[in-house]
Amino acid sequence: MLRTLQLSFTNWSGFGDPTATGASNYTRMVGDDPAFWKVMTNTVVFATVVGLGTVGMGFLLAYALYRKIPGGSFFKVVLFLTFMLSQAATGVIWRSMLDPLLGPVDPLLQRFGIDAPSFLGDPSWVLATLSVKAIWQFSAVPMLVFLAAMEDIPASLIEAARIDGATRRQILSKIILPLIRPVVVIILLLQFVFTMRTFDTIWVMTEGGPNKASAVMGTEIYQLGFRQARMGYASAWAVVLTIFVGVLGLVYLKVFQRKAVEY
Amino acid sequence: MAIATSEQLGVDADTDDQPRKRSRKRSAHGLSPIWLLPMGAWAIGQLYPIVLTFLQGLKSRSEIFTNPLGLPSSPQWQNYSDAWDVPVARASMTNFGLNSVIVVVIALVVVIAMGSTAAWYLARSKLGEAGWVNGLLVALIAMPAQVIIIPVWEIAGQLGLRDNLVALGILIGVDSLPFAVLLFKSSFTTFPSELIGAALVDGCRGFGLFWRIVVPLSLGTFVAVAIVTGIGFWNEYSFTLILIGSPEHWTLPIAVASFEGQYVAAEELKWAATGLTLIPALVFYLVLNRQVIGGLRLGGVKG
Predict the structure, then answer these.
(1) Long-range pairs of B77-80 with CB within 8 A, sequence gap ≥ 24
(2) Shortest CA distance to B24 belongs to which of A157, A147, A163, A255?
(3) Looking at the partner chain, which of A1, A101, A108 has a beta carbon nearest the beta carbon of B69?
(4) Nearest CA in chain B to A104
(5) How many alpha carbons lie under 13 Å from residue A112 in its C-beta half-sphere?
(6) Structural contact between residues A241 and A44, judged by C-beta atoms closer than 8 angstroms
(7) pTM of whole model > 0.80?
């Protein structure tokens, strides 16, 4: 880690010896590199959308399971399947699926008379598509945690509310939601932080393209370091990513902290 | 020695052995069919791409273009055996599978052996009680892999360990160490102290104590950690991408990612090959799904 910091102050190419260049990497990043802000924005947007998406979906799914739909255990099994598969494999599948010439999605939409945009080729659609794929794959873990939290609520509490005549919706909003709030907050943070580092999914599906439309910090670091042999610069990005994540995490916790869950 | 209460951990105190199915009677709500529809829709959405992969793999080359949405008119089972045989970048599917297995096994050994022993030490010592230890572990977990990727590559190069599956396995294992230690530590700190006390009285100490008493009784945790980290190892992509060069050493995820370029104009083989790579994970999951979910819950709740 420290070496990364050290390298970030050089212009190493990955071969030979690094030569120190002071903070020029950083100044260049912020000042000169137009990609920097784009990538930052992409990363934050992607992480936010996917974070909220997985948490939201996870909550809905958990609630549905909590409410005991028929076939609940079957669904539980199905829902975790996607998590088991590698982001690389599912990325390839999705990419092939969405392929305008070869995939089934386009013809399917045509049937409904919808002219499909180029999901991965159109810069305005790319991030959205990737987000959907990420949410598709990772909603199961928040779901599990939320379900556990919901089931931890003592049945007596719910019974008492029922007896007092509370409707399902009231039980949901007045009892369940407040009680699992700390869990939701933490999971949201975790999902956000983990998504900020995404590399596999995006790299496999678009390599950050088209034209950096879907580049996030994870892919950019790889691109710079291993494709463009600008290791020093890539290190600087890595440092920025870490600091960014760290700061966000701290800020988030300060703002939303109700009860410290210590582990 | 601080023992976290079960409320703090959010887990039943005796979840050590079997991931217990959460008592269904906890929920006071009755069966609720209206949720079936959205849930069903989501489930279909979850399964569709996977099912699609296998179906497309059964179509003939032209049929993939002419009939993208329907079922294969006459299943071309030989696509699958062809995909298995045809070399991808001078290496075969069996290669990839084997490599994945090697890497995963090594990583698991590292994670379990080092993680459990380190956690046991922390659970039993004064050092482990310090709040900052947990904080540090959490911070290490949150640390993005990209932060160490470049120096790792550099060091691996200097040590001549690039393209080395064993080194990769160790690296990946170590990368998951903070997480494993956290899980093990939580579990060990709630280990019944009477048992430890009894063992000490009988003269069983140190590693013997760990090996003969703690491990057998914490098997559930071990399994959970193995499963949760194992899934990550099997699907690992970024470190592998950086450190492994020659196709003979590719693991499954890397191989799959290359299919797009390798199978140009052989769409049906691409789908079939992708399907093949999914099979191990699918089989594993179908057989062990209760353990997997239990393990994930353990990991998720504590995380």
Answers:
(1) B79/B268, B79/B269, B79/B271, B79/B272, B80/B272, B80/B275, B80/B276
(2) A147
(3) A108
(4) B68
(5) 6
(6) no
(7) no
How many of the other CB atoms lie within 10 Å of CB of A65?
24
Which residues are bridge partners to A10 per DSSP? A20
Closest chain B residue to A102, measured at CA: B65
Q: What pLDDT score does A27 carry?
A: 57
CB pairs under 8 A between A and B: 243
Q: Residue A10 — φ and ψ, nearest 5°?
A: -125, 180
What are the tokens at A53?
């998406």
End-to-end CA, chain A: 24
- Rounded to whole angstroms, the Cα distance separating A120 from A118 reads 6
Predicted confidence (pLDDT) per residue in B33-76, tens digit: 777 778 888 888 888 888 888 888 787 777 777 777 777 777 77
Residues 6+ apart with CB under 8 A from B204: B212, B213
**Would an 8 Å CB–CB cutoff place A7 in contact with chain B?**
yes
Q: Which residue in A86, A147, A197 is closest to B146 by CB distance?
A: A197
Residue B28 clears pLDDT 50, i.e. is over it: no
- Per-residue pLDDT tens over the stretch B191-204: 777 777 777 777 77
Token pair listed for B290? 């209760």
Q: Residue B88: what are its φ and ψ, rounded to 5°?
A: -110, 115
Query: Which of A127, A87, A120 lies closest to A105 in space, CA to CA?
Result: A120
Q: Is the peptide bond before A210 cis (omega within 30 degrees of 0)?
A: yes
For chain A, give the number of residues: 263
CA distance A50 to A56: 9
Tokens of A220: 């950019």
With an 8 Å Cβ cutoff, is B182 touching chain A? yes
Please answer whether residues B181 and B136 qualify as being in contact, where contact means their C-beta atoms are separated by less than 8 angstroms.
no
Nearest Cα neighbor of A142 from A50, A258, A216 is A50
Average pLDDT of the residues in A238-247: 78
Count Cβ atoms below 10 Å from residue B94 Cβ, excluding itself: 10
User: What number of other Cβ atoms are within 10 A of residue B298's Cβ?
Assistant: 27
ipTM of model: 0.73
H or E stretch including B274? helix B267-302
Say whether B237 and A78 touch across the interface (CB within 8 A). Answer: no
| A64, A90, A159 ranked by CB distance to B49: nearest | A90
Largest separation between any pair of C-alpha atoms in chain A: 75
DSSP B206-248: HHHHIIIIIHHHTHHHHHHHHHHHHHHHHT--HHHHHH--SGG
